[in-house]
Amino acid sequence: MTRLKDKTAVVTGSSSGNGRAIALALAAEGAKVVCSDIRKSTRNGGYDIDADRDTDDLIRGTGGTAEYLDADASKAADIQAVVDHAIETFGRLDVMVNNAGILPAPQTIADETEEEFDRVMRVNCKSVWLGCKAAVTRMRQQDVVDGTRGRVVNIASIGGLVGLPTAPAYSTAKGAVVNLTRQLAADFSAERINVNAVCPGFLHTAMLRPLLDTPELNQALHGTTPWPDLGRAEDVAKATVFLASGDASWASGSILTIDGGYTAR
Question: Which residues make Cβ contacts (< 8 Å) with residue 185, sequence separation at least 6?
Fold first, then answer.
């Protein structure tokens, strides 16, 4: 299928995990993808397919169009440069996926430091705010094509919907992403800009590898998710493609949970 043929997409945090799977899925649907991250290679210890090849290289190797830019998504100048590059190179920004994020070590607020809180908020919350600001500002200047001026997909978390144990800063940041998504949809739907979010549950990614490799913690994660298996980055990618495509043309302000039933309990 080519639901995104001739569309241009930007994906932050595209080198590993969810971001990599999202970039590959968008490209498979015909999108020209501008990949961005603080490092070009995949993270060690992940579950990425063909981990020895960079995301942009893998896309081009399968006949797609992709470029890569080094960018810290929490820095305004970096994220603006990525958005500007996409438009200058391909003429338009159709899809902005704000995916970059980190998972801090588990601890309660009693032990979490102010410095750790600031770092998590900067990477997991401010980066999304900056990405949305840069994308929406440029999308408002574009013509309406296929019913929209552009689509923004924010990758949040179940931690933005419920309180995750020993994740105070993370839950705070992701909760902000969820409500920012709703707020932007309220402001910009009338201008035909779609803004939605995906909230993944527990996945096989490098960020969760330390927990998955610990038998008792692995069992605990499985025990808290109703579905018998944990998710994979590809599950998040499929949901993102849906929200980035015309299949979700009337969706704006939607928060799509991909969590094996975790938040349904």
Answer: 194, 195, 196, 252, 253, 254
Helix extents (H) in the chain: 17-28, 55-61, 76-90, 114-121, 127-139, 168-188, 209-212, 215-224, 233-244
Full strand arrangement of the beta sheet holding 193-200: 65-70, 32-37, 8-12, 95-98, 150-155, 193-200, 255-258
Size of the chain in residues: 265
Give the catalytic positions in this structure: 170
Q: Which two tokens stand for residue 89?
A: 């190179």
pLDDT at 49: 84
Two tokens, residue 258: 């991909």
Q: What mean pLDDT do residues 149-170 have?
A: 97
Report the predicted TM-score, pTM, of the whole model to 2 decimal places: 0.96
pLDDT tier for residue 43 given thresholds of 50, 70 and 90: confident
Q: Where are the domains of the chain?
A: 8-264
Topology of the domain covering 8-264: Rossmann fold (3.40.50)
